[in-house]
Amino acid sequence: ETKMKKLIAGNWKMNGSLAANEALVKAMLEGLQGAEPAADMALCAPAPYLAQLQSLLQGSPIAWGAQDVSAHEQGAYTGEVSVAMLKEFGCRYAIVGHSERRQYHGETDEVVAAKAQRALAAGVTPIVCVGETLAQREAGETEAVVKRQLAAAIHTVGHCITEIVVAYEPVWAIGTGKTATPEMAQAVHAVLRAQLAAATTHPKRVHILYGGSMNAANAASLLAQPDIDGGLIGGASLKAADFLQIVASAR
Ligand code: PEP
Fold first, then answer.
1. Atom number, ligand 1, closest to the C-alpha of residue 215
2. Distance CA 124, CA 137 (A)
3. What InterPro entries does the record point to (predicted)?
Protein backbone atom coordinates (compact mmCIF):
# COMPACT_ATOMS: atom_id res chain seq x y z
CA GLU A 1 0.00 0.00 0.00
CA THR A 2 1.23 3.50 -0.78
CA LYS A 3 1.76 5.66 2.24
CA MET A 4 -1.16 8.02 2.80
CA LYS A 5 -0.72 11.68 3.53
CA LYS A 6 -0.99 12.77 7.10
CA LEU A 7 -4.03 14.81 8.15
CA ILE A 8 -3.72 17.98 10.19
CA ALA A 9 -7.15 19.06 11.45
CA GLY A 10 -7.81 22.24 13.39
CA ASN A 11 -10.45 22.38 16.10
CA TRP A 12 -11.33 26.01 16.71
CA LYS A 13 -13.66 25.07 19.58
CA MET A 14 -15.94 27.97 20.59
CA ASN A 15 -13.66 30.67 19.25
CA GLY A 16 -13.76 33.07 16.34
CA SER A 17 -15.79 35.79 14.70
CA LEU A 18 -16.53 36.58 11.08
CA ALA A 19 -13.68 39.08 11.02
CA ALA A 20 -11.16 36.95 12.90
CA ASN A 21 -11.97 33.82 10.87
CA GLU A 22 -11.51 35.64 7.60
CA ALA A 23 -8.13 37.04 8.65
CA LEU A 24 -7.00 33.64 9.94
CA VAL A 25 -8.08 31.68 6.88
CA LYS A 26 -6.64 34.22 4.47
CA ALA A 27 -3.31 34.11 6.28
CA MET A 28 -3.30 30.31 6.10
CA LEU A 29 -4.12 30.28 2.38
CA GLU A 30 -1.44 32.87 1.68
CA GLY A 31 1.10 30.84 3.59
CA LEU A 32 0.23 27.77 1.56
CA GLN A 33 0.80 29.42 -1.80
CA GLY A 34 3.39 27.89 -4.08
CA ALA A 35 4.47 24.60 -2.58
CA GLU A 36 2.42 21.39 -2.48
CA PRO A 37 1.13 21.08 1.11
CA ALA A 38 2.96 18.45 3.16
CA ALA A 39 -0.31 17.12 4.60
CA ASP A 40 -4.04 17.04 4.08
CA MET A 41 -5.70 19.78 6.10
CA ALA A 42 -9.07 20.59 7.61
CA LEU A 43 -10.56 23.24 9.87
CA CYS A 44 -13.46 22.42 12.18
CA ALA A 45 -15.46 25.50 13.07
CA PRO A 46 -18.55 26.37 15.13
CA ALA A 47 -21.68 25.62 13.08
CA PRO A 48 -22.62 29.26 12.36
CA TYR A 49 -19.31 29.74 10.56
CA LEU A 50 -19.50 26.76 8.21
CA ALA A 51 -21.06 28.87 5.45
CA GLN A 52 -18.19 31.31 5.81
CA LEU A 53 -15.62 28.51 5.61
CA GLN A 54 -17.37 27.15 2.55
CA SER A 55 -17.00 30.46 0.76
CA LEU A 56 -13.41 31.04 1.95
CA LEU A 57 -12.07 27.50 1.44
CA GLN A 58 -13.96 26.20 -1.59
CA GLY A 59 -11.39 25.15 -4.19
CA SER A 60 -8.49 25.51 -1.73
CA PRO A 61 -6.35 22.69 -0.32
CA ILE A 62 -8.03 23.05 3.10
CA ALA A 63 -11.19 21.05 3.80
CA TRP A 64 -13.61 22.03 6.55
CA GLY A 65 -15.90 20.39 9.02
CA ALA A 66 -18.02 20.63 12.15
CA GLN A 67 -17.17 19.97 15.79
CA ASP A 68 -20.17 17.75 16.41
CA VAL A 69 -23.15 16.28 14.57
CA SER A 70 -26.51 14.96 15.71
CA ALA A 71 -27.05 11.23 16.08
CA HIS A 72 -30.54 11.82 14.69
CA GLU A 73 -31.57 12.34 11.11
CA GLN A 74 -33.99 15.26 11.61
CA GLY A 75 -36.88 16.40 13.72
CA ALA A 76 -37.62 17.54 17.26
CA TYR A 77 -34.05 17.90 18.54
CA THR A 78 -33.76 21.54 19.53
CA GLY A 79 -30.25 22.91 19.18
CA GLU A 80 -28.90 19.98 17.20
CA VAL A 81 -27.38 20.12 13.72
CA SER A 82 -27.95 17.26 11.29
CA VAL A 83 -25.40 15.74 8.96
CA ALA A 84 -27.59 16.71 5.97
CA MET A 85 -27.16 20.32 7.06
CA LEU A 86 -23.40 19.90 7.32
CA LYS A 87 -23.40 18.43 3.81
CA GLU A 88 -25.22 21.47 2.46
CA PHE A 89 -22.33 23.59 3.66
CA GLY A 90 -19.70 21.34 2.13
CA CYS A 91 -18.35 19.75 5.31
CA ARG A 92 -16.02 16.81 4.74
CA TYR A 93 -15.49 16.09 8.44
CA ALA A 94 -17.31 16.13 11.75
CA ILE A 95 -15.52 15.69 15.05
CA VAL A 96 -17.49 13.32 17.29
CA GLY A 97 -16.94 12.45 20.94
CA HIS A 98 -14.50 15.23 21.73
CA SER A 99 -13.63 14.96 25.41
CA GLU A 100 -15.28 18.32 26.06
CA ARG A 101 -18.55 16.90 24.74
CA ARG A 102 -18.12 13.69 26.71
CA GLN A 103 -17.33 15.66 29.89
CA TYR A 104 -19.74 18.59 29.70
CA HIS A 105 -22.57 17.11 27.65
CA GLY A 106 -22.60 13.56 28.94
CA GLU A 107 -21.92 11.91 25.61
CA THR A 108 -21.51 8.18 26.04
CA ASP A 109 -19.57 5.77 23.84
CA GLU A 110 -22.90 4.66 22.36
CA VAL A 111 -23.99 8.20 21.47
CA VAL A 112 -20.59 8.92 19.96
CA ALA A 113 -20.77 5.74 17.88
CA ALA A 114 -24.28 6.65 16.69
CA LYS A 115 -23.03 10.08 15.62
CA ALA A 116 -20.12 8.49 13.76
CA GLN A 117 -22.50 6.13 12.02
CA ARG A 118 -24.87 8.94 11.04
CA ALA A 119 -21.99 10.98 9.59
CA LEU A 120 -20.54 8.04 7.65
CA ALA A 121 -23.90 7.13 6.16
CA ALA A 122 -24.11 10.65 4.69
CA GLY A 123 -20.54 10.66 3.40
CA VAL A 124 -19.09 12.92 6.09
CA THR A 125 -15.94 11.55 7.72
CA PRO A 126 -16.27 11.35 11.50
CA ILE A 127 -13.17 12.18 13.53
CA VAL A 128 -13.83 9.90 16.51
CA CYS A 129 -12.04 11.14 19.63
CA VAL A 130 -10.82 8.79 22.34
CA GLY A 131 -8.59 9.38 25.33
CA GLU A 132 -8.08 8.82 29.03
CA THR A 133 -8.29 11.28 31.90
CA LEU A 134 -5.34 11.86 34.20
CA ALA A 135 -6.97 9.73 36.91
CA GLN A 136 -7.46 6.90 34.44
CA ARG A 137 -3.83 7.10 33.28
CA GLU A 138 -2.57 7.09 36.86
CA ALA A 139 -4.76 4.09 37.62
CA GLY A 140 -3.20 2.21 34.69
CA GLU A 141 -6.46 2.20 32.76
CA THR A 142 -5.37 4.02 29.60
CA GLU A 143 -5.45 1.01 27.28
CA ALA A 144 -8.75 -0.28 28.59
CA VAL A 145 -10.40 3.15 28.27
CA VAL A 146 -9.34 3.89 24.71
CA LYS A 147 -10.11 0.33 23.62
CA ARG A 148 -13.61 0.54 25.09
CA GLN A 149 -14.19 3.88 23.35
CA LEU A 150 -12.97 2.63 19.95
CA ALA A 151 -14.79 -0.69 20.35
CA ALA A 152 -18.12 1.11 20.49
CA ALA A 153 -17.41 2.76 17.13
CA ILE A 154 -16.17 -0.48 15.57
CA HIS A 155 -19.23 -2.34 16.82
CA THR A 156 -21.59 0.26 15.36
CA VAL A 157 -20.01 1.08 11.99
CA GLY A 158 -18.80 -2.44 11.14
CA HIS A 159 -16.90 -2.78 7.89
CA CYS A 160 -17.07 1.02 7.35
CA ILE A 161 -14.43 1.35 10.06
CA THR A 162 -11.73 2.06 7.44
CA GLU A 163 -13.61 5.27 6.58
CA ILE A 164 -13.39 6.90 9.98
CA VAL A 165 -10.59 9.02 11.41
CA VAL A 166 -9.55 8.27 14.99
CA ALA A 167 -8.10 10.98 17.24
CA TYR A 168 -6.22 9.93 20.36
CA GLU A 169 -6.50 12.85 22.73
CA PRO A 170 -5.37 12.27 26.30
CA VAL A 171 -7.73 14.49 28.28
CA TRP A 172 -4.93 15.69 30.55
CA ALA A 173 -3.07 17.03 27.51
CA ILE A 174 -5.90 19.04 25.97
CA GLY A 175 -5.48 22.76 26.37
CA THR A 176 -3.04 22.25 29.24
CA GLY A 177 0.29 22.67 27.51
CA LYS A 178 1.14 19.14 28.70
CA THR A 179 1.84 17.00 25.66
CA ALA A 180 2.18 13.24 25.70
CA THR A 181 5.76 12.33 24.82
CA PRO A 182 6.08 10.87 21.33
CA GLU A 183 6.73 7.48 22.94
CA MET A 184 3.65 7.66 25.18
CA ALA A 185 1.46 8.68 22.26
CA GLN A 186 2.94 6.05 19.95
CA ALA A 187 2.28 3.32 22.53
CA VAL A 188 -1.42 4.16 22.60
CA HIS A 189 -1.61 4.58 18.82
CA ALA A 190 -0.12 1.10 18.44
CA VAL A 191 -2.84 -0.29 20.70
CA LEU A 192 -5.51 1.41 18.58
CA ARG A 193 -3.90 0.18 15.35
CA ALA A 194 -3.90 -3.38 16.66
CA GLN A 195 -7.56 -3.05 17.58
CA LEU A 196 -8.34 -1.79 14.06
CA ALA A 197 -6.35 -4.69 12.62
CA ALA A 198 -8.70 -7.09 14.35
CA ALA A 199 -11.65 -5.36 12.66
CA THR A 200 -10.35 -4.77 9.13
CA THR A 201 -7.69 -6.10 6.80
CA HIS A 202 -6.69 -2.48 6.05
CA PRO A 203 -5.89 -0.95 9.45
CA LYS A 204 -3.31 1.38 7.91
CA ARG A 205 -5.96 3.11 5.85
CA VAL A 206 -7.32 4.64 9.04
CA HIS A 207 -5.73 7.94 10.07
CA ILE A 208 -5.00 7.92 13.79
CA LEU A 209 -4.42 11.53 14.83
CA TYR A 210 -2.77 12.68 18.04
CA GLY A 211 -4.31 15.66 19.85
CA GLY A 212 -3.39 17.47 23.02
CA SER A 213 -1.24 20.59 23.07
CA MET A 214 0.38 19.76 19.75
CA ASN A 215 2.20 22.86 18.56
CA ALA A 216 4.80 24.14 16.13
CA ALA A 217 7.64 23.06 18.44
CA ASN A 218 6.57 19.50 19.29
CA ALA A 219 4.70 18.45 16.13
CA ALA A 220 7.63 17.02 14.18
CA SER A 221 8.66 14.51 16.84
CA LEU A 222 5.07 13.36 17.39
CA LEU A 223 4.36 13.08 13.67
CA ALA A 224 7.55 11.05 13.15
CA GLN A 225 6.08 8.15 15.14
CA PRO A 226 5.04 5.21 12.96
CA ASP A 227 1.40 5.12 14.05
CA ILE A 228 0.77 8.86 14.32
CA ASP A 229 -0.93 9.81 11.05
CA GLY A 230 -1.63 13.44 11.81
CA GLY A 231 -2.85 15.83 14.45
CA LEU A 232 -5.99 17.35 15.89
CA ILE A 233 -4.98 20.85 16.83
CA GLY A 234 -6.88 23.09 19.23
CA GLY A 235 -5.13 26.24 20.42
CA ALA A 236 -2.42 26.23 17.75
CA SER A 237 -5.04 26.14 14.98
CA LEU A 238 -6.04 29.69 15.91
CA LYS A 239 -2.67 31.01 14.71
CA ALA A 240 -1.92 30.74 11.01
CA ALA A 241 1.85 30.51 11.40
CA ASP A 242 1.62 27.77 14.04
CA PHE A 243 -0.90 25.72 12.08
CA LEU A 244 1.21 25.98 8.92
CA GLN A 245 4.35 25.01 10.83
CA ILE A 246 2.58 21.88 12.09
CA VAL A 247 1.47 21.08 8.54
CA ALA A 248 5.03 21.54 7.31
CA SER A 249 6.23 19.16 10.05
CA ALA A 250 4.07 16.37 8.64
CA ARG A 251 6.54 15.10 6.04
C1 PEP B 1 -8.46 19.61 21.01
O2 PEP B 1 -9.30 20.24 21.62
O3 PEP B 1 -8.81 18.76 20.18
C4 PEP B 1 -7.04 19.89 21.28
C5 PEP B 1 -6.14 19.03 20.92
O6 PEP B 1 -6.77 21.09 21.94
P7 PEP B 1 -5.30 21.69 22.23
O8 PEP B 1 -4.48 21.51 20.99
O9 PEP B 1 -5.55 23.15 22.52
O10 PEP B 1 -4.75 20.94 23.38
1. 8
2. 32
3. Aldolase_TIM, TIM_sf, TrioseP_Isoase_bac/euk, Triosephosphate_isomerase, Triosephosphate_isomerase_AS
Say whether 172 counts as a known binding-site residue.
Answer: no
Domain ranges of the chain: 7-31+38-55+62-248
Q: Do the Cβ atoms of 112 and 152 come closer than 8 Å?
A: yes
Q: Phi, psi at residue 228, to the nearest 5°?
A: -100, 110
Query: What is residue 3's predicted lDDT score, i.e. its pLDDT?
Result: 73
pLDDT digits (tens, 9 = 90+) for 186-234: 999 999 999 999 999 999 999 999 999 999 999 999 999 999 999 999 9
Residue type, 40: D
58-95 burial string, b = 16+ CB within 10 Å, else e?
A: eeeebbbbbbbbbbeeeeeeeeebbbebbeebbbebbb
The band of 56, judged by pLDDT with boundaries at 50, 70 and 90, is very high
Taking the centre of ligand 1 as the mean of its atom positions, its distance from the CA of residue 13, in whole angstroms, is 9
pLDDT band at 34 (very low <50, low <70, confident <90, very high): confident
CA 23 – CA 41 distance, rounded (Å): 18
Backbone angles phi, psi at 208, to 5 degrees: -110, 110
pTM of the entire predicted model: 0.97
Superfamily of domain 7-31+38-55+62-248: Aldolase class I (3.20.20.70)
pLDDT for the residue 249: 97
* Cα distances (Å, whole numbers) of residue 83 to 77, 108, 116, 144: 13, 19, 10, 30
Query: Is 159 an active-site residue?
Result: no
Point out the ligand 1 atom lying closest to the alpha carbon of residue 236.
8
